[in-house]
Amino acid sequence: MHSDPDLFTLDDTFSQTAPILDRLIYTGYAVEHEPADQLDGCETSPPTIVVSVGSGATDTAALLLKSVAAVAPKLDGFQIAIALGNRIEDALARALRESVRGVDHVTCQEFIPDFHQQLARATLSIGLGGATVLEALALHTRPLVFTSPEIEDQMRRCTRFAERGLLRLLSEEEVSDPERFAGIIRREAEKPRPTVGINASGITVFANVVDQLLAGKPPGAQSLTGRHLKASSN
């Protein structure tokens, strides 16, 4: 299972785990990223905020983008990179670009070409709670998340992460109030870079498990919640 059992186990959402416990393997989250300590450079000066909303097609994405565009010109102590997504409505994309035109510390484009490099060096990641949250946490970048309660699994995951102090959940009231939103961004940016992230070794561990199974070897020792394997160099 692609999860970090220190955060979520299968029985959090599925009650019939006992019959499969001896075959259950936790690999960590499957996140494509380079380890933060292998990336060239460190946090930028001025500090960077990376904003991404997936495809940009949802109402939640539209609200967050409008809110960020409203406060970005006031955050002149930061460099802000906004990714609009490839399915945002044309009229909204034009309006957002126009709202930050001439603001030197803000870029607004469909995609951020060197996204993972910028995310690794960013002080904050602002987004909707999808895969970018896992990428940010794997890179020890602090996430601010505005997600829809209608996406239950995403809300459940982000709420658990917030309870563990891994991210800051934003309410609609907070993002809709420019002064309040700007204050939250400044306060979160002043916090030290997170030192605790998530187990994001799922791709490597899964490959190791497959290799072990093909070789006829048992893939690790059993624990009470299944087998939690760390990535190895073998």
Put the structure in a nutshell:
By secondary structure, the chain is of the alpha/beta class.
Report on this structure.
It is a single chain. This protein is of the alpha/beta class. It has 2 domains: 10-29 and 199-228, no CATH class; 39-190, Glycogen Phosphorylase B (Rossmann fold), CATH 3.40.50.2000. Helix content is 34%, strand content 12%. The chain has 8 helices and 8 strands, in the order E-E-H-E-H-E-H-E-H-E-H-E-H-H-H-E. It has a 6-stranded parallel β-sheet, with helices on both faces. Strands 1-8 form a two-stranded parallel sheet. The chain is elongated and about 60 Å long.
Which short descriptors sum up this protein?
234 residues; alpha/beta; Rossmann fold; 2 domains; 6-stranded parallel beta sheet; two-stranded parallel sheet; 34% helix; disordered C terminus
